[in-house]
UniProtKB/TrEMBL annotation:
UniProt keyword list: Signal
Name assigned to this protein: DUF3108 domain-containing protein
Residues making up the signal peptide according to the UniProt record: 1-19
Length: 256
């Protein structure tokens, strides 16, 4: 039945799927979907800003040769995102401001390392703890994003990087939660190094969730990153994600 629904969706018949009146998400599921959407959009915005800023920074020879740089942090400033590269202190060395439209400004070079904000300091420390724990497996390198959960807890996401066009490297996505300076939990999103095909003519992608009963923030991130609708099959049903918003299409039939 899942394949049938997916075929309908790929043919542009989402309305037909909804006409079957699938069981509505529970209140708890609706809250989880809203959280996944919010955090997934945040992941996408921060990753886009970091990637755009990195291109600007690497145009400068001084930056490329600066051995003090050990990583970066991100900070929201109104609608913009400030990407700051740090040393081991951690202290700020360089900054790039990325607008809400994803366009980056010029690289700001700090002649003297500058103090970070408390949030930036907490993020830098969480990254330093989390990133070394997961060596690249499905990729040569990770793109990394950190989101605050509370003042003392951060989620650090390791998202596979790829140089391949028309491929969504969702396999190998990982999250490490850091609280009070220690690893609180770890979560893998897939069992394999699955990559979704987005060759020309692809209307949507589909993935089976190995560990999660519902679409997650990482599914939302990859849907936005790929600019392609995504269908996620879980033990609770078939879900559709489009423009960062997840909806339930169908529950599993009894006995499935």
């Amino acid at each position: 039945m899942y394949r049938f629904l997916l075929a309908l969706a790929l043919a542009g018949a989402c309305a037909s799927a909804h006409a079957q009146d699938p069981a509505a998400p529970t209140e708890q599921e609706s809250e989880a979907l809203a959280t996944a959407a919010s955090r997934g959009v945040a992941l996408w915005r921060l990753e886009r800003a970091a990637t755009t800023a990195d291109v600007v920074a690497r145009d400068e020879r001084k930056f490329r040769k600066d051995e003090r740089v050990v990583g970066f942090v991100t900070r929201e400033d109104g609608d913009a995102i400030v990407v700051t590269w740090v040393d081991a202190t951690p202290a700020a060395l360089y900054r790039v401001r990325v607008g809400v439209d994803g366009v980056a400004g010029e690289l700001e070079t700090l002649e003297t390392p500058a103090a970070l904000t408390p949030g930036e300091t907490a993020e830098a420390k969480a990254r330093a703890i989390a990133i070394p724990l997961v060596p690249p497996t499905c990729t040569d390198s990770y793109r990394t994003v950190a989101l605050p959960v509370s003042d003392a807890r951060w989620s650090v996401y390791l998202l596979p990087a790829t140089a391949k066009a028309q491929s969504v490297p969702i396999g190998g996505s990982y999250r490490i939660d850091v609280a009070d300076g220690k690893v609180a939990s770890q979560h893998a999103y897939t069992k394999t190094c699955v990559a979704l095909d987005t060759k020309p003519g692809t209307v949507a992608t589909m993935v089976t969730s190995d560990f999660d009963a519902m679409p997650t923030d990482v599914h939302v991130f990859w849907q936005l990153w790929s600019r392609t609708p995504m269908y996620v099959s879980t033990q609770r049903g078939l879900w559709a994600i489009q423009e960062g918003h997840a909806t339930l299409l169908e529950r599993p039939k009894t006995g499935q």
